[in-house]
């Protein structure tokens, strides 16, 4: 890795941006006061993402840039701010830690947690103590206690009603997952019905009463239960079984008062048939992978207002417009440090995507490509219609399970999917990843480096975006927000997961359960 | 043969002075032959001790301290002027404003809660993070204010400090150079590019610099056409100190690449009439920086730069 070249590139970029911004008659592409800094910032983040630079150097370059620009503006005229520059300045402001999400309309139902999580990512909300930008990727854990053990994933799709005292509700069983030494039910809680006393707060209620439930197996063993939640939502959770059921168990029964136990057949063959996996090798460079993630982030950002508020007729373009800033610099920087081949087709595709989304000022040198990947085109079509589905997708959950082949050292298992408040979240268990809150340029999630798409039975593609994440030592539970959401009429999906070393496609039937 | 290795880097730089508010009056700081002198503070060290013990702060002494602390700071190269036309007009009022702002931040800063029992680990960790963030912020503000005070001395002092920093890093061994080369490349590019624009009419973005090491003055080459046009220049890091800081970079329509015989106001330099040619010796003569009201007054504008002619 040419680290010296990376730092030289960033410092020269900062110099060129300062020269442009301070010119007596700045060229129109200079973009105003904020955009120069944003360019240096995002290019620095890109170089960090491919391990060409570390945070400290990027921080030093930015600090010097800030002082250099500010001392020259103390008593001088400021170049006129263009609309685009204002957007960039807003974006720069968003780069500050702790920036809150936009206020919601009073009385309006709040967006689902998965969408709030996504907004937080666009707004660059970082955890305390985090630098908010990516660092060199940490290696996955040295030792995985589950390694070598046969995993078992079983789709369920059953509902367990419960009622005790003043509390009633339903628990939806999406799947059973047994990996390594851990076994759990992936569940979705229906909205509980509380008595009047509970509603008035006179009596403390356990909204998700795991303690009401019992799980027994075909050998009469009773399991201790506890639950863990994704950080994006507590409606979806895992009910962990302790100890894990031994091999050879044919079924378990899940019971809650006052109803009958619901039997779950743990024979994977009992589930619906699944299409064969198609795997193919690839040799993507680190730079190409980063650009693909950037393209997907652009596509998600373009859909985002639609995903959050389907009733809105058009997407607000300002965030997407701002995301064009620095793309040309990122590409040049990646080429300069030899992590992007000069003949790579990705820059031209990214240029075409920017053109399609009417993002100007991206400064990508490559001419826009004529051919775009089919999933990108599908989302572009959805975006350009600017007319979301007439009705918000209906709530519900779908039982599906699939263990995907390892991609770039990451093993993903799909364990369920649900629609809530107009959004779709796909639940996966992931091994070989680390939760470090590493954000790349324009907020791309570096902790989840894979490209992940679903194609529905109508041929429309949905991009998956990490929204909820429950970290663990070896296996993480991740909620992937699907954009656009998946209609409940979907009978099957094709999953496309891609990394640097290859891609895999799996066709899966969906077994939709009762609406929560 | 240049005298670069034999003579001090500031051989072509005359002394300069700045007036600054200090205590109840206006004091004078003078730069002479690479040294900073506080004309109104004959015993600066004693005053420093008194200030540390709670005595009145002495701005002249603080500025001299900042000068010493940043004499090897590569940030000076990133922030300092790119040429006489690059106006960095920091006033002492600006510095006062910045210092007051820093004090307010300090007063509003984090104070640990007064608890009698030990806080929970998570709270303690959060508190430690907050304190660290506050210290980082205060350090950054101090550094920024130091930089403002040095810039407030005016253009003449700015280029002399820049020359001192460049010279401090000019002859580092290769291992050390690997770490600082990116900053040095950017620093030379930043100052050579506007000179090249004036010399050849080339777009500053088309100037490509590599630091020259070893014997000789370096090289220049003009390649390509239109958007592919590039001026490739290899110059030693010391060029910044010996040539650029002295205001010699473009003299008599020549790009000066080295000083053959340093001196003020007369010197002999090696200069290029065009890229790709060999340098020729030129005898040059300087006129003093601008006078204001008959007094040498260092101000942050082009008038502070000496003017050299063949």
Question: Describe it for me?
Answer:
The complex is a heterodimer of chains A (516) and B (310). Among the domains of chain A are: 3-101, no CATH class; 152-270, Immunoglobulin-like (Sandwich). Helices cover 28% and strands 27% of the residues of chain A. Chain A is built from eleven helices and 20 strands. In chain A, strands 10, 11, 12, 13, 14, 15, 16, 17, 18, 19 and 20 form an eleven-stranded antiparallel beta sheet that branches. In chain A, a hairpin with a 4-residue loop joins strand 15 and strand 16. The radius of gyration of chain A is 24 Å and the shape is elongated. In chain A, 48% of the residues are buried. The model of chain A is unreliable at 77-111, 115-143 and 307-315 (pLDDT under 50). Chain B has 310 residues and is of the alpha+beta class. Chain B has two domains: 16-155, no CATH class; 172-287, no CATH class. Chain B has eight helices and 13 strands. Chain B has helices spanning 44-52, 59-69, 75-79, 92-107, 121-151, 155-168, 174-200, 238-244; strands spanning 16-22, 25-32, 35-38, 207-211, 219-223, 230-235, 250-251, 254-261, 266-272, 280-287, 291-292, 295-296, 307-309. Residues 112-116 and 292-302 of chain B have low confidence and may be disordered. Classes of the chains: A alpha+beta (516), B alpha+beta (310). Chain A binds chain B through residues 4, 7-8, 10-12, 14-16, 19, 22, 60-61, 63-65, 67-68, 71-72, 74-76, 128-129, and chain B through 75, 78-79, 82, 86-91, 94, 126, 129-130, 140, 144, 147-148, 151, 178, 181-183, 185-186, 189-190, 193, 204-205.
Quickly list its features.
heterodimer, A: 516 residues, alpha+beta, Immunoglobulin-like, 11 helices, elongated, B: 310 residues, five-stranded antiparallel beta sheet, three-stranded antiparallel beta sheet, 8 helices
